[in-house]
Design brief:
about 475 residues, Alkaline Phosphatase, subunit A, ten-stranded mixed β-sheet
Length: about 475
């Protein structure tokens, strides 16, 4: 049977305790986790950065030295997957630890959205759960999880918000006097109040604001969610930063690559702030992307097939790095399938918090630690699932099935030379066909626990 309940594989010091921690301000069921404790959690979320863009993932361009150092000091996950191939649904899962389809957040909110579109008030975010534990919580940068007061970051457990509500905006400051619905979504806010914009380049501004948040909370537990908009369009470079690229680089790729270098510098500001305030060792740092890259700008999805918006590997396989010097090994590559769903339970366990039963993700730390030991190891996820409108997909080990709305096809990801098996046309051998049938049945069973989308798919006509 391909559906199973996955228990946490415990290493030394990671067994669940027999009592739950007291709750402050909310219902957070589950057993507390004992062992090393992170006194801070920093999530660095990149936008549209694909698997092959980073030096630690194989890029020869040398544009990401700070991210590469983070990888060298932590664990890099070479088979990490986002739950969606577009921004907002992916972010909904990252912040809740639950498949976004369970609460109807299957598509990006429309720009002309009514108040029903956005992160459901019934969902409990990582910020809320860590806030109950006494962590100061702040989000800096892109939100893209709804535009109403009920969907606002402050309504979802963040003490502080400095950023914008929409999915993209200019990297340069807006002049005063702009008004109107779209500008209200794009402009910067401090909490719920708009601010006058006085900065040279947005990515740098976000990094500096994040460093300031760390400085102001350096003596206390804190959760920082730094949500970059880079390298999402518009493709605007930092006019004050020179980035030399080889002549062999496609000119269409150049703006996004220079934006990536600017973001890496901002990551350096954040890591530097942790070092300056002696918070490196007791801080869990997570770096990842929300989905794969956009093909038409030449973003390097490595040798992966597909792009943003598609459930092929290039659309959902993303960079993921964890660093926590007090508890995780350094310079390790972990190659089992993991999900951005795992960020919430990993962060909660690191902070010594209970793991609620409703989470779809798992704490990754025990799996990483046991992978260093001899013998067979249990994978974190027997299966990963996707549904995005007419598209759906499933991954079990190396076996992936994708349906882009025209019928399913199969591929063994371990067979780099093998092609796609179109199931309506090709005839797999009997054992493989039986396995494929079981996988499709498992996906159908998973969909029975999902909610219908709460709003229709966003199109450019909705701008």
């Amino acid at each position: 049977m391909w559906i199973m309940s996955l228990a946490v594989v415990a290493g030394v010091g990671w067994m669940p305790a027999t009592t739950s921690l007291p709750q402050d301000g909310g219902d957070d069921p589950g057993e507390a986790v004992v062992g090393p404790r992170a006194r801070a959690v920093v999530v660095l979320l990149m936008d549209d950065v694909s698997y092959g863009d980073l030096g630690c993932s194989g890029s020869p361009l040398g544009l990401t030295p700070h991210i590469d150092r983070l990888s060298a000091d932590g664990v890099r996950f070479s088979r990490a997957y986002a739950t969606a191939a577009t921004c907002s649904p992916s972010r909904a899962a990252i912040l809740t630890g639950r498949y976004q389809q369970r609460f109807g957040h299957e598509f990006n909110p429309q720009h002309k959205a009514d108040k029903g579109q956005g992160l459901s008030a019934s969902e409990v975010t990582l910020a809320r759960r860590l806030g109950w534990a006494g962590f100061a919580t702040g989000i800096i940068g892109k939100w893209h999880l709804g535009y109403s007061a009920a969907s606002h970051p402050i309504s979802h457990g963040f003490d502080e918000f400095y950023g914008f509500l929409s999915g993209a905006r200019s990297y340069h400051a807006y002049a005063g006097g702009r008004s109107g619905r779209q500008n209200d979504l794009n402009r910067l806010y401090n909490g719920r109040d708009p601010v006058e914009e006085e900065f040279a380049y947005l990515t740098t501004e976000l990094g500096e604001r994040a460093a300031d948040f760390i400085a102001r909370n350096s003596e206390d537990p804190f959760f920082l969610f730094l949500s970059f908009s880079a390298v999402h369009s518009p493709f605007q470079e930092d006019p004050e930063m020179t980035v030399d690229l080889p002549e062999t680089v496609d000119p269409e790729r150049a703006p996004a690559l220079r934006m990536l270098a600017s973001m890496d510098r901002a990551v350096g500001h954040v890591l530097g702030a942790l070092e300056e305030h002696s918070r490196t060792d007791d801080t869990l740092v997570v770096l990842m992307s929300d989905n794969g890259g956009r093909a038409r700008e030449g973003i390097a999805n490595w040798d992966l097939i597909g792009k943003k918006g598609e459930l092929l590997e290039g659309g959902v396989r993303v960079p993921l790095i964890l660093r926590w010097p007090e508890a995780l090994p350094q310079g390790v590559e972990y190659s089992e399938n993991v999900s951005t769903l795992d960020i919430v339970p990993t962060a909660l366990a690191a902070a010594g918090r209970p793991l609620p039963d409703e989470l779809d993700g798992v704490d990754l730390a025990p799996f990483v630690l046991t992978s260093l030991e001899a013998g067979d190891h249990q994978a974190p996820h027997p299966m990963l699932y996707w549904r995005q409108g007419e598209q759906w997909a499933l991954l079990a080990g190396d076996h992936k099935i994708v349906d882009r709305g025209r019928g399913p096809f199969y591929r063994n990801l371990a067979d780099r030379e093998g092609g796609f098996v179109v199931l309506s046309r090709d005839k797999p051998e009997a054992a493989l066909q039986k396995h494929i049938d079981e996988l499709i049945a498992a996906h159908e069973l998973w969909t029975q626990g999902l909610r219908n989308p709460r709003w229709r798919k966003y199109t450019l006509d909705d701008d």
